Amino acid sequence: MMMKRIASLFLLFLLAGCSASQEAPVQKAQQSKISPARSLNMEQLCKDQAARRYNSEVEKIDVTGFERFQGSYELKGHTARKEGFICSFDADGQFLHLSMR
User: Taking residues 33-56, what's their average pLDDT?
Assistant: First the structure.
């Protein structure tokens, strides 16, 4: 009886150890390759939205990053006053929202 219980515990620890060692893969942003015209349109729309939000001139808005995630795009930037923002777009390049950072 005691050997059966020890064998069961050993099996339990063995299975627990196997399942604990498996880790979920880390997902990272994918760099996208889109047409230059499309990216320029997205950049201009992002600048327009940020200028309106921050009560600034479009010329004083800088877009500094462009990343593609699973079915969406993000453009990162800042104003002349170093206020950060992120513009989000869907897979078709339609503006979704502007987030302050």
Answer: 92
